[in-house]
Design brief:
alpha/beta; three-stranded antiparallel beta sheet; globular
Length: 300
């Protein structure tokens, strides 16, 4: 039997659309924003060190959009062992007020509400700047026409007695920050519920809209429900004595590009050194495999 293809008019043109413009690390080698990260490793395996190394890298490099706008960083840590893990103290962008010792849905909601509130601060300040600039640029003879067309501009300026933007209360951030929320050592708590629509799962799904990168650090992969794992696109896999569990549980993430034995080979190579880790980055057009943060791995 011979199969013929008859092309249909009107369905051969590719769709044209603008890709979302999120701030990205200026180095060009980091995972693409906005992602969720899952780091798995036994105690003393170096998983926290590897994550903090990535976060320090973001502190040292600009997070910038295509138009050149630079966005600030904000780190938020939820960890019952934060005081016992001084490595987080090396993060200059981590404020003491953004450290929480316990996780609860209420704590997570408070964090999200605060992120939204600070975005609204930024929006309100930019709106005032725009209104003041328009007033300054409008000739005096045309002010009445501007008032008739846009009275809301004058109402906004009146709230601050027509003060300059520098004279009114300043926002916490002049541009939306990239919020990196770290959840470390939360096994046994309420974060990893198996409910299909948990507070954390919903936040992971909506992270792009909120400008959040969630970084989840655990000692056992099976402690993280599948609905949470499915919403992660970057994986840090530290060394385990029993690698079978890691290989079998996460192989489905790369099964379309690697055979199981190839995945085994990459994992073994990346973790052969102490504190070594295999990083799977699925934030771009394909999947990248990294040895720690220092080298990209490719099978010849």
């Amino acid at each position: 039997m011979t199969i013929q293809e008859i092309q249909l008019d009107g369905f051969n043109q590719p769709l044209k659309f603008d890709k979302l413009d999120y701030p990205q690390c200026a180095c060009g080698n980091c995972p693409r924003m906005f992602f969720n990260l899952l780091s798995v490793g036994a105690r003393q395996s170096g998983k926290t060190y590897s994550l903090v190394k990535l976060l320090k890298h973001y502190e040292s490099n600009k997070l910038i959009k295509k138009d050149g706008t630079v966005h600030p960083l904000r780190f938020i840590l939820i960890s019952p062992t934060s005081e016992a893990n001084p490595i987080y103290q090396s993060l200059n962008s981590l404020d003491a007020s953004d450290i929480y010792e316990e996780y609860s849905d209420e704590v997570l909601q408070d964090i999200i509400d605060d992120i939204k509130a600070k975005r609204q601060e930024t929006d309100a300040f930019k709106e005032y700047q725009k209104a003041y600039r328009l007033l300054e640029e409008t000739p005096e003879g045309k002010l009445s026409k501007l008032y008739d067309k846009h009275p809301e501009i004058f109402r906004l300026l009146e709230k601050h007695d027509y003060a300059t933007p520098n004279e009114i209360e300043q926002p916490t951030y002049y541009e939306y920050p990239v919020n990196m929320v770290v959840l470390d050592d939360l096994m046994g708590g309420s974060a990893f519920t198996t409910r299909a629509q948990s507070k954390l799962t919903n936040a992971l799904i909506k992270n792009r809209h909120l400008g959040i990168v969630f970084c989840i650090l655990v000692q056992a992969l099976k402690s993280v429900p599948k609905n949470i794992r499915l919403n992660c696109s970057v994986f840090f896999l530290a060394k385990f004595a029993n690698k079978k569990m890691i290989l079998e549980d996460l192989y489905e993430e790369v099964s379309n590009v690697l055979k199981l034995e190839e995945f085994d080979e990459l994992y073994s190579h990346a973790t052969e050194e102490r504190y070594g880790s295999l990083i799977i980055d699925a934030t771009g057009d394909g999947k990248r495999f990294l040895k720690g943060l220092s080298a990209e791995l490719r099978l010849a």
